[in-house]
Amino acid sequence: MAKILKPTQINRCNGCEMCIFEAQRQLKKVGLEDSLIRVFRKKNPETQVMEFELEIDPRINILDVEKIESICPKKVFEIQEEPKND
Amino acid sequence: MIDISVKKVLSIDLENKEVAVKSFSDLNKYFGGTGLGLKLLEIYKDKSPLIFSVGPLNGFFPYASKTSIVLKKDGAVEDIYIGGSLSTRMKFSGIDSIILFGVSQEEVILDIQDSAVNFKDKDTDPALLGLPGKKSGIYFEGDKLMCDQYFTTPELYLESIFKEKNIKGITITGTEIFSPKNFDDYKKLYSEILDRKPDIRVDSAEYPSCSGCPMGCGKSKVGEIGGNILLNSLVACQFADKIYTDIGVVFSCLNTLGYDYTHEDIENLPKLIEDTIRNISK
Q1: CA-nearest residue of chain B to A22?
Q2: Are B176 and B94 in contact (CB under 8 A)?
């Protein structure tokens, strides 16, 4: 079964973008263009606290997702087994 | 593709709304960051420039996450540093320095994408400019300039010069990529440096982090002022000094990326900067 990367603890994200850079390194490049992970930051207008959102391209499965999970300093990700299609 | 063989400078004439991109191969010996910023200040000292610069390691190695800002205020040269994602966006725009000359005739917001600049009027919402996920913005929230709506600089030098120049904000989007000369060596060195977390002189915490730094420390919010010239030319964090003042480590990082620096180039940098500061003061 394929493994999928899920940001299950997004509230912990600190916006360091280490996950983006790891994913890009696995594709032998440095930069943000065509990244399979994107991080968006936005200040909550009510609490004035910085919040982050993650967008993960389903093609992330072509990469070593365990490495991406382990580079995150805040343990934002979890690796789950992709459900089997009957 | 980012070209590291030259220093690429984006100059913006605020008064005439003119933009130029210049490549300087003879400025490579100033490395980047404050070294490059001070040399550009010397070259353009009669045009009261405000200079943002990144260093050769920004965007490429961990803990090298600040942006250098060099300016002259009341006759004194100031070098200040801001955190956030500005340095990676500048790096991925392929630009080493951005120089802002003159005074805009009306309040302006600069929307920069790679080397292209759009002059937007003061009523534009800067948060809506740039490409999501690939941009960084520095603009006023009240009387304070904030990068990524969180990171600031020490003192009020930057706020004061933005007001003098009639700049309300700047957004930068970087869409270029880079492939280091020897990718396997690069990945190995990256991991080795990342693993040196215990050498970073701040504790890991729960605050927003600079791009490319896992620490999330409480110190980066307010930026830095002054400090070690090698660190400031690499524009590495001052709390990563155990790593980035080690000439052997710095040489390995530069060499792996494909820069053509020698150990002597690194050792000679302080003297070059000293001479540059002397020339600016003349």
Answers
A1: B187
A2: yes
ipTM value: 0.96
Q: Which pair of tokens denotes residue B178? A: 């880079």
Q: For strand B50-53 and strand B97-101, is the pairing parallel, antiparallel, or unpaired?
A: antiparallel
Q: Angle at CA A58, nearest 5°, toward A5 and A19?
A: 45
Candidate from A29, A55, A74 with C-beta closest to B177? A29
Asked if B132 lies within 8 A of A43 by C-beta distance, the reply is no
Which residue pairs, CB below 8 angstroms and at least 24 apart, start in B40-47? Answer: B40/B9, B40/B70, B40/B97, B40/B99, B41/B70, B41/B71, B41/B72, B41/B77, B41/B280, B42/B276, B42/B279, B42/B280, B44/B99, B44/B101, B45/B72, B45/B280, B47/B101, B47/B102
Q: What is the pLDDT of residues B171-224, one digit of tens each?
A: 999 999 999 989 999 999 999 999 999 999 999 999 999 999 999 999 999 999
Q: Which of A30, A39, A73 sits opposite B59 (nearest CB)?
A: A30
Does the pLDDT at position B158 exceed 90? yes
Angle between helices B247-257 and B263-281 (to 10 degrees): 100
> If you count residue pairs, one on A and one on B, with CB atoms under 8 Å apart, how many are there?
88
CB B91 within 8 A of CB B174: yes
Write the pLDDT tens digit of every residue in A12-68.
999 999 999 999 999 999 999 999 999 999 999 999 999 999 999 999 999 999 999
Q: In this complex, do B179 and A30 lie within 8 Å of one another by their Cβ atoms?
A: yes
